[in-house]
Amino acid sequence: MSEYQDIRTTTMDVDIGFLKSKRGVLKLAEMMTLLVGFVCFIAASRSEHITATVIEFLITLFLLLMYLFKLNKKLTFFFWPLIDAFNSVFAAVYFIVLSMIALRTYTVTGTLVGGIVGFFSVVLLSVDSYILFRSITFNKPRSEIQHQVNG
């Protein structure tokens, strides 16, 4: 082997502008409310609520990182804005039910606060899905739609 090996470096594009956009701020706000809800449910020792908030936090983190590193433009076998919109709708419905259960069955203040924060998450997820569904049209080329959704 030679002393100098062929080392290939790849660079990854980072879209810092996404974090400053409406959708980026919305994703960060969703993550913050999910994190606060997670902490509240940990304080109340409600494992079923903890699991739901952690799973949605991880899904939102995955989507945020995907948009941040522009992986949605490289992995084109899925229509990511539509997946994101469906995730937001299903998570909003799920968190409505979860928050109502938390508010009806609370015995510890952490469960009450977690249920209230869950409703804030529902509002943010609903706004996110509304923005996504408003910008998705099925008669435009995929690259144009993804640019429109991310901008």
Plain-language structure description:
This protein starts with 15 loop residues before the first helix and ends with a helix. The longest helix has 27 residues, at 109-135. The protein is globular. The protein is built from seven helices and no strands. 76% of the residues lie in helices and 0% in strands. It is mainly α.
Quote the distance from N terminus to C terminus.
Answer: 48 Å
Q: Give the uncertain stretches in residue-range form.
A: none
Shape: globular
Total helices: the number is 7
**Structural class computed from helices and strand pairing:** mainly alpha
Radius of gyration: 19 Å
Write the SSE topology.
Blueprint: H1 16-20, H2 22-44, H3 47-68, H4 71-74, H5 80-104, H6 109-135, H7 142-150
Features:
single chain; 151 residues; mainly alpha; 7 helices; 76% helix; globular
What's this entry about, in short?
With 151 residues, the protein is mainly α. The chain has 7 helices and no strands.
